[in-house]
Design goal:
By secondary structure, the chain is an alpha/beta fold. It has helices at residues 2-16, 21-29, 36-48, 50-60, 70-85, 91-105, 110-122, 130-133, 138-148, 152-159, 177-181, 203-207, 216-225, 242-250, 264-277, 326-340, 363-372; strands at residues 167-169, 187-190, 193-196, 211-213, 232-235, 256-261, 282-286, 298-304, 344-354, 376-378, 383-385, 388-390, 395-398, 407-414. It has two domains: 2-128, NusB-like (N-utilizing Substance Protein B Homolog, Chain A), CATH 1.10.940; 215-414, Rossmann fold (3-Layer(aba) Sandwich). 44% of the residues lie in helices and 16% in strands. Strand 5, helix 14 and strand 6 (256-261) form a beta-alpha-beta unit. The termini are far apart.
Length: 417
């Protein structure tokens, strides 16, 4: 029962205390010696399919989800998730362990949990709409249907895929991905990105700065920026510092690198990442990228702006249930672009990137910027993702495909002052 108990406590903390899911999971897993993969799968699965699981509960329970206590609600969600998505768990074990958990955390609801699970297992429903089956709130479902039409259903399914972890090798310590792969022989290479095939312990290689956990989108955004030794470069939304460190590595610690971050505690994360990776040319400034003023200009600027994060739902399923805040995010992105574009030198490069697939935050944002700033123009680039080349027109919208996340990159050149 220990593994399921920890999973329940994590889910309760996430729901009752509004903790970020990854932090609640980290806290919970620290109490376990073994069984971490099971707990991670169960926790992320319950959050990923929350709407679907709640509809199943409502189908079989006389007391609806909204009126159930948090522990009972999560015990039932865990039970139905194990039944529907985790084939190796026997039905009797799911019921027995769920009732035991209820006895510990909600004793009076033992009978309810036992009855609801048994009813559900004997006649599991399969007549829900796609929004319910794939478990998306109406806001996201409607947005993707409106923007992508016939593609939307496939996108929704792919957003629910569990994605492999991507890592970056330190470009000051290894000449190529092939050389770095010798340290991780079980990993696969896609371009310059490594994907560990097995969950071996590479903690020491990360702690010493040889490798960093970093999404493919972040790595490719820096590749498109194409930093050179001796240049002056700005990373204007830098935390937690993976992109900044990568920029410094490609600069070979020669030149000037400035990293902006709005929150002081996240500035510390950037500094620690730079130190871990051996990047010594970075200056971290606590500032608002939409308002900061500089006395000089930069050869290259990276604006990996705050966004709705819709492209990374596969690895961060709790994004589904957050307020998207598009009314605040889209104007903020616009203000960041407007402000930092002033500090791009003539013939300099501005790279704009997000980890969302919302067109309002991506192509439409860039089109609007270009209309207002005719001294910038799109510049072609070429990146390869899953054997497909993107960027020929200066923009790349990569959609989630079950292997990679969804993200957007645009490369702009300042042609005149």
């Amino acid at each position: 029962m220990e593994r399921r108990k920890i999973a329940l406590l994590i889910l309760n903390e996430y729901e009752e205390e509004s903790t970020f899911l990854n932090l609640a999971l980290k806290n919970g897993l620290s109490r376990l010696e073994e069984g971490r993969a099971f707990v991670t799968e169960l926790v992320y699965g319950v959050v990923r399919y929350r709407r679907f699981l709640d509809e199943v509960i409502n189908r079989f329970s006389t007391t609806k989800v909204k009126k159930l206590s948090t522990p009972v609600k999560n015990i039932l969600r865990m039970g139905f998730y194990q039944y529907h998505f985790m084939d190796k768990v026997p039905d009797f074990a799911i019921v027995n362990e769920s009732v035991k958990l209820t006895a510990k955390y909600a004793y009076k609801s033992k009978g309810l949990v036992n009855a609801v699970l048994r009813k559900g297992f004997s006649g599991f429903p399969n007549d829900f709409s796609l929004a319910v089956t794939e478990s998306f709130p109406d806001e996201i479902y409607d947005l993707l249907q409106a923007q992508y039409g016939e593609q939307a259903n496939e996108i929704l399914r792919n957003l629910n895929c569990k994605l492999p972890a991507a890592i970056r090798y330190n470009h000051m310590r290894y000449e190529s991905a092939t050389e770095a792969q010798k340290q991780l022989p079980e990993s696969e290479i896609m371009g310059d990105v490594l994907f560990p095939k097995v969950s071996g312990d590479i903690r020491s290689l990360i702690e010493n700065g040889d490798f960093s956990v970093q999404s493919m989108s972040s790595q490719l955004a820096v590749s498109v920026l194409d930093p050179k030794p001796g240049e002056k470069i700005l990373d204007c939304c830098s935390a937690p510092g993976g992109k900044t460190a990568y920029i410094g590595e490609l600069m070979k610690n020669r030149g000037e690198l400035v990293a902006l971050e709005f929150y002081s505690h996240r500035c510390e994360l950037v500094k620690k990442n730079l130190q871990r990776c051996g990047v010594t040319i970075g200056t971290v400034i606590e500032a608002d990228a939409s308002k900061i003023e500089f006395s000089g200009q930069f050869d290259r600027v990276l604006a990996d702006v705050p966004c709705s994060g819709l492209g990374v739902i596969g690895s961060k399923p709790d994004i589904k249930w957050r307020d998207l805040q598009l009314g605040q995010l889209i104007p903020l992105q616009r203000e960041i672009l407007k402000n930092i574009s002033q500090y791009v030198a003539k013939d300099g490069v501005l790279v704009y990137s997000t980890c969302t697939i919302n067109q309002e935050e991506n192509e439409l944002q860039i089109r609007r910027f270009l209309e207002e700033n005719p001294n910038f123009s799109l510049e072609p680039f070429f990146i390869e993702v899953n054997h497909t080349t993107y960027g020929e027109q200066g923009m790349a919208q990569i959609l989630p495909d079950g292997v990679t996340i969804g993200f957007f990159i645009a490369k702009l050149r300042k042609t005149k002052e």
